Structure formats: C-alpha cells, structure tokens
Amino acid sequence: MLTTKDRVETYKDQIRAFLASNFYIADADALQSETSLLDQGVVDSTGVLEVIGFIEETFGITVEDSELLPENLDSIQGIAQYIISKKN
Fold first, then answer.
1. Is the Cβ–Cβ distance between 42 and 15 less than 8 Å?
2. Which residues are within 8 A (CB) of 49 and not within 5 positions of it... i.e. 6 or more apart?
3. Residue 82 CB partners (closer than 8 Å, separation 6+)
4. pLDDT band at 4 (very low <50, low <70, confident <90, very high)
5. Is the distance from CB of 11 to CB of 83 less than 8 angstroms?
6. pLDDT (tens digit, 9 = 90+) per residue, 15-62?
7. C-alpha 82: how far from its chain's center?
8. pTM
9. pLDDT of the residue at 44
10. Span 70-86, mean pLDDT?
C-alpha cells in the first residue's frame, strides 16, 4: 500500500505527463509543482475544463462546481492534493 506521500508523487507524475502531452510546455520536467498553471500560461480557462475532464476520467472522481478553486486546480501540487482529499 502506498503512503499518502507516495500517492501524491505518483499523481504529480501523472498530472505532469498529462499537461506535457496536452498543452505546450517547453520543458515539462522544469515545471515546478507549486507553479501557477494559469499565471505561467500553461492552461487558460478552456484548459481548466480539460484538466477537470482528465481528473474525473483518470481518478474516477467528480469535480463539483464548489470545488473549482485555484487552490485545487492551479498547480500540479494543488491538483494532486485535491485528488488525495477526494479519494479519502
């Protein structure tokens, strides 16, 4: 059984891979986990919808309207933490 820390790292890897394959990122490995995806221009408002679709399909969770918050969706770390909170 993976620890929460291991699960977060696994999720971060999956999120980074999704972002690299669906959005233009010059160097996905250089993208810091805490970096704002919106501020850095990695995703825009339409891209957020793609990220939500990825979360729902990949992790089998539903993103509620009330959960569409920057702390949940604006960084790789935030997305990973959000997924952990929804799966617990």
1. no
2. none
3. 55, 67, 71, 72, 73
4. confident
5. yes
6. 999 999 999 887 877 889 999 999 989 999 899 999 999 999 999 999
7. 8
8. 0.92
9. 92
10. 96
In DSSP notation, 3-70 reads: -HHHHHHHHHHHHHHHHHHHS--S-GGGS-TTS-TTTTTS--HHHHHHHHHHHHHHH-----GGG--H
61 touches 86 (CB < 8 A): yes
Given a contact cutoff of 8 angstroms between Cβ atoms, the answer to whether 34 and 22 are in contact is no
Give the contacts of 6 (CB within 8 A, at least 6 positions apart): none
Length of the chain: 88
pLDDT band at residue 65 using 50, 70 and 90 as cut-offs: very high
**6: its two tokens:** 């291991």
